[in-house]
Amino acid sequence: MSEVHVLDHPLISDKLTRMRKVETTTQDFRLLLKEVSLLMGYEVTRDFETKDTTVTTPICEGTFPMLAKNFFTIVPILRAGIGMVDGLLELMPFAHVGHIGLYRDEETHEPVEYYYKMPENVERSEIIVVDPMLATGGSASDALGSLKKHGCTNIRLMNLVAAPEGIAAVQKAHPDIDIYVAAIDERLNENAYIVPGLGDAGDRIFGTK
Ligand code: PRP
Ligand code: URA
Q: Which residues line ligand 2 (CB under 6 A)?
């Protein structure tokens, strides 16, 4: 079974609480999401493999760790996942970005895929799928399924807020994929929104409501 990592560092928790507030503006929401994504990125990348490399400092030669791989891909689930990309790119400016477009059908709450674009040879890369909300888990499960269909295996999932139902659904569909979240909330409501959550992440990031 995959591991669920709850990244409840005080700075992460404080920023998330500010994002939850209904009065937080789109401008502040976006900035907080970028900051929290960067902070979460430290933990999400913690077990990236390193290899010892010999370098010459101004003083002498020495052997030190460097990243073993040089191919990393951040995959936001559109739209809301886009809000987490800049923070991670600050941490890993060398990363590639792939996109998966999914929206939840408002009646069935089932995800519908409308876009898929990855860097060439993405299956060789280390992948972080990002989306602020893990509600029913349908969108994340589908996105992870699409990547696997294209041969990807080194994938991890990063969400800001998750419902227990979403975590269970992703773990059932993808027991091999670790999940990183800032908080696990109580439950879903009758519209499959996370309670207490932070509302509609896409609308709050892009100011569409
Ligand atoms: C939201 C969110 C996730 C999805 C989570 O996107 O960003 O992608 O819902 O819900 P789930 O776990 O039940 O699938 P939404 O469908 O509202 O699309 P948007 O990002 O374009 O606003
Ligand atoms: N999508 C969101 O943006 N928020 C939720 O609470 C659930 C799905």
A: 80, 133, 135, 193-194, 197, 200-202
How many domains does the chain contain in total? 1
Per residue in 97-142, pLDDT tens? 999 999 878 888 888 999 999 999 999 999 999 999 999 999 999 9
The reply to whether omega before 164 is within 30° of 0 (cis) is: no
C-beta 139 within 6 A of ligand 1: yes
What are the φ/ψ torsions at residue 100 (nearest 5 degrees)?
-125, 120
Determine if ligand 1 sits within 6 Å of the CB of residue 77.
Answer: yes
Q: Domain of 129?
A: 4-206
CATH number at residue 158: 3.40.50.2020
Atom of ligand 2 nearest to the CA of 192: 7
H runs (alpha helix) in 100-162: 138-149
